[in-house]
Amino acid sequence: MILPVYDDLPKEFRSDEVRKYYDILSHKKVSLFFKRLLDIVFALILTVILLIPMGIIALAVRLDSEGPVFFRQQRVTTGGRIFRIFKFRTMYVNDNSKNAQVTSGTDSRITKVGRFLRKLRLDELPQVFNVITGDMSFVGTRPEVERYVSAYTPEMYATLLMPAGITSMTSIRYRNEEEILEKAEDVEQAYIEEILPAKMRFNLEYIEKFSVFYDVYIMILTVVKVFF
C-alpha cells in the first residue's frame, strides 16, 4: 500500500489535523508496503482454507430466509474512495426499518442464522475478497457509510489515510457495540454522537502505533477475543 500524495487528497483531508497523522505515516512507508504484502498473502491463504466453511454458511443463510446470500453496501475507504463491502446477509430483506444503518442486539431485522454469524463475526468472512482487491486491509478502521463519514470532524478524516479494516483494536474494545446501543432511545443519534467519536479516538491512536507487528498482534487478539 502506498500512501496517497497529500496534495492529491480531497480538500477535507488537507488540514492541519490530518497533516499530523499523514506525517507519521510518511515515515512508515516500508511498513505500509509490507502491510499490503501480508494482506495479499494472508487473504489468498484464507480464501483456500475458508472456501468450504463459507459455502456452508452461504447455504445456511439461503435456507434461513429469502434473499441474496451476500449483503453489499457502499462504504468509504482510503482517501474517501467509495467501494462495496462484502458480508453474509444477516437481516431480512424488505424490512420497514431498513433505512437504519446501525443495529442493536435485539434488532428485529436480524435473522436466526444472522444472529449466530454476528456473534462470532462470521458474517465478515467474505471481506477477504475486499482485502484481495485492496479496498480493505485485515487491520484498520472499520469502514463507515457515507452519511456517517459526513459527520466526521477534521481530525477523523485522518483514519481514511489507510485502507478500511476487517478488525482493529477499536473493534475489539467495542465488540459489544450492539448491546450498548440497546439502551439508547435513538440508536443512530447515539452512534453518531457517542459511539463514533469514542471509537475514532482509538482509530487515531492506531495510526500513531502502526507497525506490521502491531497488526499481527491485533489479528491474533481478535481471534482470541471472538472465539475464547
Can you describe what's shown?
Helix 2 runs antiparallel to helix 4. Helices cover 50% and strands 10% of the residues. The mean pLDDT is 91. It is mainly alpha-helical and 228 residues long. Strand 3, helix 5 and strand 4 form a beta-alpha-beta unit. The protein has nine helices and four strands, in the order ααββααβαβαααα.
What key attributes describe this structure?
228 residues, mainly alpha, two-stranded antiparallel ribbon, two-stranded parallel sheet, 9 helices, 4 strands, 50% helix, globular
Question: What's this, in brief?
Answer:
This protein is mainly alpha-helical and 228 residues long.
Topology:
Layout: H1 16-26, H2 29-64, E1 70-76, E2 82-88, H3 112-119, H4 127-133, E3 136-139, H5 146-149, E4 164-167, H6 169-173, H7 177-181, H8 187-209, H9 212-227
Parallel strand pairs: 3-4
Antiparallel strand pairs: 1-2
Helix pairs in contact: 2-4
Number of helices: 9
Shape: globular
Low-confidence stretches: none
Order of helices and strands: HHEEHHEHEHHHH
In terms of DSSP E residues, the strand content is: 5-15%
Q: Count the beta strands.
A: 4
Rg (C-alpha, Å): 17 Å
**Helical residues, percent:** 40-55%
Major sheet: 2 strands, antiparallel
Distance between the termini: 32 Å
Sequence of strands across the biggest β-sheet: 1-2
Mean pLDDT: 91
Class derived from helix and strand content = mainly alpha
